[in-house]
C-alpha cells in the first residue's frame, strides 16, 4: 500500500541508551541487529532524547568537543599547510573526513611546495633506455626515480607504456 509505514518492535529507551551511549554501537550496527532501517533507529534515538553523533564524530567525544577539534585542525591546516594526509593523521581522522572539514570551512587544498621530479635525459635516450630495459620499473631504477615518475617521463616523451600491470593493453597519452 502506498504511504503505509511498516511497524517495528521498538526497544526501550534504556536499551537504546545502553547500545548507543554505553556500548558505543553505531546507528548502522543497531539497525542491523534489530533488522530495521537506520532512519528508524535515528528516529527512536531522537524520541528517547539521545543526541546522535555526526557521521564522522568519534565515539566517546561530545559534539562540542568535536566542533572545537575541527576548528583547531582547520586553523593549524591554514597555518602549516601540510598535506591532507598528514593533517588527517595528526587529527586522527580519515583523509576524507579532513577534506570534508576543510570544505565546510571554505579552505581549498594547500600546495605542498614539493618540486616536481625532473630528470635530465633526452627523449631519444629515454626511448633507448626503455627499449633496453623493457620495464617501467627498471627504467625508474636506472634513473633513480620511482615507477610513477618513470611512467610520467616516458609518456611525456611520447613513448607508449603499459597501463598498470604487465600484459594490460597500452593506452594513448
Structure description:
The radius of gyration is 26 Å and the shape is elongated. Helix 5 packs across helix 6, helix 7 packs across helix 8 and helix 8 packs across helix 9. The chain is built from 9 helices and no strands. The chain has 3 domains: 35 residues, no CATH class; 42 residues; 58 residues, no CATH class. It is an all-alpha fold. The C terminus is likely disordered. The chain starts with 12 loop residues before the first helix and ends in a 17-residue tail after the last helix. Helices cover 54% and strands 0% of the residues. The longest helix is centred in the middle third of the chain and has 18 residues.
Going by helix content, strand content and strand pairing, the class is: mainly alpha
In percent terms, what proportion of residues is strand?
Answer: under 5%
Order of helices and strands: HHHHHHHHH
Instruction: Estimate the global geometry from the Cα principal axes.
Output: elongated
Q: Roughly how many Å is the radius of gyration?
A: 26 Å
- Number of DSSP E strands: 0
Let me know the largest β-sheet.
Answer: none
Low-confidence stretches: 169-173
First and last CA, distance: 55 Å
Please bin the fraction of helical residues.
Answer: 40-55%
Number of helices: 9
Report the average pLDDT across residues: 78
Number of self-contained structural domains: 3
